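ping. complex inputs:
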Amino acid sequence: MKTVKFIGLTASVAFLLLLSTACSQNTEREDMEFSNTPAGNFLSLWTIMDERYCFFDLKKEQLGVDWNEVQERYAASISNEMSNRSLFEVLCNMIGELRDGHVNLTSPYDYGRNWSWKTDYPSNYSADLRKKYLGKDYVIAGDGYFYSILDDNIGYLVVESFGSSMSSSRINVMLNNMTLCNGLIIDIRDNGGGDLSAAEFLASHFTEKRLAVSYTCYKTGPGHNDFSKLYKNMLTPAKEDLRWIKPVVLLTNRGCFSSANDFAFTMKALENVTLMGDTTGGGGGFPMSSELPNGWVVRFSSAPTFDAEMNHVEFGVAPDIRLDMDEADVKAGKDTYIERARKFINDKLVNP
Amino acid sequence: MLLTLLLTLLPIPALAQKTVWTLPEHNETVRALSIAAGKAFGRDTYLSASRYDGWAIGFEGDIWTGYDPERLFSFGRSFSSAYFSPMTNRLKGGSTLAAGYSGYKAFMWKALQTRRHDILIGPSVMFEADILYNRQNSNNPVNGAGYLAGGLSVDYTLRFSMFRYDMAMQATFYAPLAGLGFAPDYDQPYWYMYKYSEYGKALHFILPFNNPAFMQQVALVLPCMGNRFRIGYSFDYNGNKLGGHSRNIFNGMFTIGCAFRFQNKEWDL
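pong. complex structure:
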């Protein structure tokens, strides 16, 4: 009987210990949770960004953004009497200070964003002219992938989005169709990104060597500099697929963002590829999302990416040949970018 | 549908017994299946700082096995439960789906067995996994929490009579004490885990202080038309603070089901 009592007592003590641990966890949870008031939502947003956004040091260095000072400045605009719409405006302005296309606030009112990385620059792009160069009989190779062969036997591939991946067989068919072309122009202007793996998969068809194209890490804690070790990102030649080793000109503008930005610096690392146009829009942080107490969703850059030379790509990738659209060309129905790319490839044929 | 399935099982004849509930003898098993309904709560700061709750449905399966009485651990218990819950936050502005499985295999020492009381206690191996799917997060919609651990399991049974019917009340408590838990390393994206084969950072050694978890059950066993009905309440808590984020996922559900006793003639344990 004594044994039974001892066991019962031991089990009870163990149970109480576990329960108290669980309760202490609950207390911590309560402390971390913010109230659903304008002040609570404001503080929640500021804290989520403070603990999880990955570019604070870079933004301080390049844009002079001091996140603590930002809190003080915007806190003055918060009152518990303000409307939800006003709160949304203040919160969007606060996160807009970071000038990051991956930083957004979604609410029933609007999709909060700061797209100055694109809108403050010339677009260098005309959808009408692109259609004209593609012609009427262009091939739709996938969702957002179109191509045709220009008069001077140069392939012209438009990638509108990396929202979906072009299948291996379709890439093979496309490259096979253009086997006799002298070169290839890939136009990713205004490509806002999508799936990173789709961009990598396409790029893998333009190299015969396995090479390091970028590095990345992720946040391991709430401190602004709590990062994991760097992971090397290797580009491996597409297996059992056709691979394009002739000249490639990649056309970029400020509208190239996120995965398109990744595609740009990946392609830039390849010997047969020349970047032409404007610096890309950037977006070098892998995004994640969270929610405020009122249900609004905040998206933020969480894991930074560096190119093969360990440069940040958050502010874009510079082209090898800087170019702007010429108004006279546009009036004449010509796309300066495409014309220069054609000339570049044709010149290479003469002077390899 | 589960209820219909359960009702179709009712005609299966229950075997004769002295009381409504006794521990299985050597080479005997008692199997119980219950459906469950209640409420679940979840909060995972990897996905959102908000707390969610919603109704939950699930099932529980229980198998008691009688081993050789000469053994130290002369009884075994295998328990499985699963649940699903669509949750919302307090303002109904956020939406999260939760699903989970928990189970354990316990080897029980008969600490006490009298005409009215049974107390079984023993070590157990436990596994629990919960998955939360935040329907608003576009880039990181899913997160999982789980563990595989060794722990402690205690069962208590009280037999009594009411209105001339034999009944039994069962109470169970189990808790993991040490093992391995899974949780992303702070903001480690799942894509990175896959791409760089970096799963090791998501595995953590767990103890009750960083992974407090337990399950409690109380059930009443009633005789009904020659069968044994079990009506009960289960509370399952899985909390952790692994990898820098905190998670608290728990559910409380009422259960109803049947228990059947089987003889394992060709199965020598």
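Confidence is low (pLDDT under 50) at residues 1-17 of chain B.
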